[in-house]
Here is the input.
Amino acid sequence: MLKRRVEEVHPTPVDMPGVQGVAMRLLVGRKDGAPTFAMRHYTVSPGGHTPRHQHNYEHEVMIMGGTARVEYDGAFHDCAAGDVLLIEPNKMHQFVNAGPQDLTFLCFVPVTFDCGKPTPGS
Amino acid sequence: MLKRRVEEVHPTPVDMPGVQGVAMRLLVGRKDGAPTFAMRHYTVSPGGHTPRHQHNYEHEVMIMGGTARVEYDGAFHDCAAGDVLLIEPNKMHQFVNAGPQDLTFLCFVPVTFDCGKPTPGS
Here is the structure.
């Protein structure tokens, strides 16, 4: 059985246009044989943010720690640990760390999109 | 945007053969428009356990609190908060609360299996 702890997985800095201070741990992904979806853990440093972007697949998110200001489809939402979000396909979205602590969250994606292309970061 | 807190979702007792002391919160599911996978939150009371069963779709699990003894494909694994598990399709598995506190975990499933049947609890 695949069994690992979050802190055992090496965090990879996310190097994309529009990203600041974000690291990703791929907890369960395609290389592990995940059949349908991937589990990723993100850490956003104070002052950091994910890219403001959209794509034609969804995210399901569980905020694990810290606070976020989330832009979604033209509106802003204050989020904290214990909040669950569904980012629907083709909706513009961005996660901004809104506090002095690390923002951490789980973010799930399907492992493929567009009829079989591997999803980035899965 | 779908945004909800875990504690706002009503827990439903899981009524299946072989289950004891388990409640499920469907955090993001088919009725919410989840395209590919569903997010569920489980609480297993002290002395409780999920069914010992198998099925032809996977689970991805994040242990959130408490401790579990997980049976998987003939072996037993001690698990605690922060552990991530991939339960592969067609592997016999069971989650037993191994401690005096509630065991809580997130468990994700694909929303369909067998070429389009709705996955139970999704």
Q: What stands out?
A: Chain B has a mean pLDDT of 97.
